[in-house]
Amino acid sequence: MERRTIGAGALAVGAVGLGCMPMSWAYSTSRQRGEESLRCVHQALDLGTTLLDTADMYGPFTNELLLGRVLKERREEAFVSTKVGLLVGEQHIVANGRPGYVRRACDASLRRLQTDVIDLYQLHRADPEVPIEETWGAMAELVRAGKVRALGLCAVGARAGRRSGSALHDTTLEQLRRVQQVFPVAAVQAELSVWSPEALDGLLPWCEARGVGLLAAMPLGNGFLTGTLRPGEGFEPDDPRARHPRFTAEMMAANQPIVAGLRRIARRHGDDVTPAQVALAWVLAQGRHVIALPGTKQERWATENALAPGLRLTDQDMAEVSRLPGAQGSWD
After folding, report:
1. N or C end of the chain, less CB within 10 A?
2. pLDDT of residue 135
3. d(C-alpha 329, C-alpha 1), whole Å
């Protein structure tokens, strides 16, 4: 697989990573099976998908434990990314950015992942009760202690409001300016896809100017851009898409022209090319520091995703994607 570098330390990773959250958090929890997920991770590594993205809150904790079973055998082949800063309680999630907690959480993640060092340690969310510089300073201490190689920041949720364009990431850009004064940022994780391109305005230029990697979360639009979801099929109650304004039956039907456009482009490249691969190739075409992070727990999708970097979209393809209609949600 094509390799890309992120951060001043020129950390090399496969252009497509593996988002591990679906293996033990959200998304069809009734169909989460540990052995199937383990096979998925092994298959991804076999195909050059080196960046494995997890978080201590996924499960909580069980996602890191699952990855630890793979890393015990194949640590040298993986680039391990996990996150800190969110605690899961009964029916709620709270931020905790206190330095003492960050240090304890890192040690716990290292134990669960069965590794001596975390390649990329990301701040999941800033704690409104703690200056972000203090949290980031504690994370920087972990780098100096040899427990972490590089630091990353997760963007504030892109759907927290109904804004669009660069203003959507104003809060994240301000956080980045502040933490960059404490210790270099190696990567920023933010939603980026054909139907959620807002990171291209402001956030990606900031990253490109500094050699910072942009980890494109949800590059397949929570599964919609794969073309495998059908309006009206419904989602399990704990699946976040059950409450998402773009995933009502009416809005899924209204957004079908986006998938139809991706499918049209895929057909031009061959019968075995899929809309998902076109969507991933579009994300990768946005810049040399962009790494796509599709999430899956199935080998077949991990295999399909890993082949996407080999797809080169033409100028015609890119222009056609730019003409696709914007995504509609029930708030529109």
Report:
1. C
2. 98
3. 35
Instruction: Round to whole Å and give the CA distance between 274 and 267.
Output: 8
Q: How far is CA 119 from the centre of its chain?
A: 16
Q: Which residues of the chain have pLDDT under 50?
A: 158-163
The type of residue at 264 is R
Could you give phi then psi for residue 88, rounded to 5 degrees? -100, 125
Q: What pLDDT is recorded for position 233?
A: 84
Strand partners, 191: 217
- Cα–Cα distance measured from residue 68 to residue 11, given in angstroms and rounded to the nearest whole number: 21
φ and ψ of 283, to 5 deg = -60, -45
Degrees, nearest 5: CA angle 100-106-107: 95
Q: What is the pTM of this model?
A: 0.95
Rounded to whole angstroms, how far apart are CA atoms 274 and 119?
32
CA–CA separation, 67 and 53 (whole Å): 10
Chain segment 276-316, per-residue pLDDT in tens: 999 999 999 999 999 999 999 999 999 999 999 999 999 99
Q: Which entry of 27, 58, 101, 121 is annotated as an active-site residue?
A: 58
SS3 call for 213: strand
The sign of the CA dihedral 267, 268, 274, 275 is negative
> Which residue carries 């075409």 as its tokens?
285
Residues linked to residue 18 through DSSP beta bridges, in sequence order: 52
Q: How far apart are CA 246 and CA 329, in angstroms?
A: 4
Cβ(21)–Cβ(295) below 8 Å: yes
Q: Where are the beta strands (DSSP E) in 15-167?
A: 18-19, 51-53, 79-84, 86-89, 92-95, 118-123, 148-154
d(CA 279, CA 276): 5
Is residue 58 part of the annotated active site? The answer reads yes
Strand 79-84 with 51-53, pairing: parallel
